[in-house]
Amino acid sequence: MGGVVLETLSNRKLSILAVSLLLLLFVFFLIGGLVAPAPSSVMNMLTTKCYDKHVYAHEKKWYIPRGLHACDQIDDLSNPVVNDKRIEASMVVFSLWLPYPRENKQLNMSRWFQNMLTVIQMDIEHHDNNPLSKYTNATMRMEVRLGYRNQQDNESDWKELISTHEDRPLRCDTDRVKDDYYRCELLSFFELGSVHYDYYLINIRLPVYQSKDVNLGLGTIKDIHIITIFQNGGFTKVWFSLKTTMFPVIIAVLVWFWRRVKLLSRQPNLLERTLLTLGIVLSIMNCPLEWFTLWFNLPWMSILSDIRQGAFYATLLSFWMIFAGEHIMVVPKNNLRSYWKHLTSVVFGCVCMFVFEMCEKGMQLANPFYTIWVSETGTQLALAFIILAGIAACTYFLFLSYMIYRVFKNISAKKTALPQMSNLRKNFYLGLIFRFKFLMVLTLLCAALTVIFFIISQVSEGQWKWGDDGISLEYSSAFLTGSVYGMWNVYVIGLLSLYAPSHKQYTQTNDTSDGSQEEEVQLTQIPTETSAMTSFISKEAQE
Amino acid sequence: MGHRTNDLRTSVTQLYNNPSLLPLTKKQKKLVTRNPGSIMAIAKGAKMAIDECKYQFKNRRWNCPTYVDGHGGSIFGKILNTGCRETAFIYAATSAAVSHSIARACSEGSIHTCSCDFEHNKVPVGKDWEWSGCSDNARYGHKFSRRFVDVLEKGRDFRYMMNLHNNEAGRVHVSSGMKQECKCHGMSGSCTIKTCWMRLPPFRNIGHILKDRFDGASKVLPGNTGRAVKRKRRRFNFSPVNPNHKRPGRRDLVYFEHSPTFCEKENMIGFEGTAGRECNSTSLGVNGCDLMCCGRGYKSETFPVKERCHCTFHWCCQVKCQVCTRLKVRNTCL
Hints:
The complex is a heterodimer.
Chain A lengths: L4 H4 L2 H25 L4 E7 L1 E4 L28 H5 L7 E7 L2 E2 L2 E2 L9 E10 L13 E11 L9 E11 L2 E2 L9 E2 L2 E6 L6 E7 L14 E12 L1 H31 L6 H17 L14 H26 L13 H27 L9 H42 L5 H40 L12 H24 L5 H4 L7 H7 L4 H17 L1
Antiparallel strand pairs in A: 1-13, 2-3, 3-12, 4-5, 6-11, 6-13, 7-8, 7-12, 9-10
Chain B lengths: L9 H8 L8 H9 L3 H19 L28 H24 L20 H4 L4 H13 L8 H19 L2 E6 L9 E6 L3 H13 L2 E2 L34 E2 L22 E2 L9 H4 L5 E16 L5 E15 L1
Parallel strand pairs in B: 3-4
Antiparallel strand pairs in B: 1-2, 5-7, 6-7
Helix pairs in contact in B: 1-3, 3-4, 3-8, 4-6, 4-7, 4-8, 6-7
Pfam families (chain B): wnt
Keywords (chain B): Developmental protein, Disulfide bond, Extracellular matrix, Lipoprotein, Secreted, Wnt signaling pathway
GO biological process, one term (chain B): cell fate commitment
């Protein structure tokens, strides 16, 4: 390995670079904390209970909760009038128009929202004579229709997105007789990868089929709340801007790095190739493809983002492994094949996560209501994949720890041997040790920062602010822009610029102050050095 | 209002159409016309408060009687003009119910003017729905209830302060009874992104809490502390009659008059007394015949009732039952 910029850079330049990178990172955090709103918003809405005596006759009818074409409504299902009018369970349609009206105008969903997911919260009243059947595992069958409409469309002109029936198990309990309502777990409802239309309309029916044992033993359902979570438009705007700015920056650094490598007389070594790959994968992740969602309906974009992000993390993990391996200071292996055992764990873990992702989100492309967690086998399958991925992650960290342990062992062995070495070899080893320790500290710092910010954002999210005052920092946004996005970008920029081969050996210009010292540190041709090192090591081994 | 009339809503429309049940002041009318749809929610809230009051007090001598003919200007009768515990409960329950019901109507989308202030302290420059979404509905309900319920209190006397305090206490219980729920939706469903929201409690829960506060309400000294120090509107400095007791907080109910025994007919508050009330001959509590009938004794009668039995229930509406006849014992106070 030749000398890298990190070793040859004067302290002044190094600190300038470090400070500017830190400032960049700080800017990322500030943008997240001060400019961006919270990453997502939530609408907690109550469905309107429509009724239609001829519900079967008009299978394709939409039930709209408000406006000119509003349906006939029931306020309270326990009202005796409901029985007098002979309304049955199958005639009731729970309907919801997303979003709600506010400040005297009907709000509309925006394409900036990117994605939205909904969960259902059931209000089931506790009656001793009509209990929720606990032992037969009450399953609710919903006949759902999801429609959409744009602002300029006719008010009754709803178009169908999907019409399906879905089973959801009700997991409820009641802890005391005094409680009027069961405490039910939230039910996942649907998830859309793109919010392309202005309004969405949900119609849910819970028909009872006595003979088929469908929707029996559900208790007394009073209301259905639908909670919609979507990414905030402001957050998307900030996120897109970050991506759009960082994309060319990374490309520029990458080009600079690769030109440096190409200038060398030798073939690029494994570490350089890995760094290049890392940079390329990061650019792919940064590529602001999401802009297209503002014009086209691209529900698969969120899967693509997840995959790109996953690919980046996989490359980063592989890079760490290879970096440690190449610094063991026995013979650098310099080819990818010798790392197959270690990299298999990364690839295996990623494949597991990919399969899980495709089972959940991939299926949702076809049916937004699909979720792997509702069926027994699905849950087991999903858990199996997650556990496998966890095992892969553990194996990876064991490998990595072992490698780092070996590096440190070698370092201490080298340190004792250092005084007897020739100047050239001594500097070579000092360089190696410095490079390794530097990356080690940097990586640990980044990891620690991520963990700390993750905890802060979780804690701050958990505390509900009821009329607090002063400047509020959006910790979750700061976590996402700063730790998840900004930090790893800055990290890769740092790596690319500091671990690029130094050109000083070619220019041979004498720096004024510490130039002489720097030049001595230069280690030139790999082959001679490697042979020198191998001979040294074999000598060591003999002793 | 342009609202559809529908006989499934009769109970509500009845309330709305009958001015004696829902008499509005000028300010209230203005508020209601400016917020179309709110009148329905208020009517529902009023019904909710009445039902809850009747439910919580069904076993007590004072069983929250209501008067359709506008007894003393209010559906709850003249008891509202006194300053006893029961008054405190009614005030708290009604303002809580309005707050609850408006918040609910906002989440249903039936009031079009609910506010969208996400960061109510920040100047919302360019911060709109698209940028950062809307705030929770309960905040609007709270504000609306303040503007709707509190304007009824006029004058600057002690009762005015007591009523405002109890109104606020009711609303605070709605806000603080909200439960937080969260959902993780980060990459692959991980918790890197977590979103939380507040869930409005069923009004029955608030009723239970208010009943507890009713039992532990503090009797305060009228005017003794001079003109009670008013830091903010609706925050008064009450001092308890018993100096060993803690000062009542925001969530406590306060009163300054002793309640009557509610045994005999009370013309002052228009209460009919417990004569003719049903009681439980085996209970030792307030609903037991000894206490309920104030020692006047009770009469027992046995009569057959037709009841629905062997019912099969669905989640809604349709109930298939048989009719059984059963003998029932009824005890009524003399």
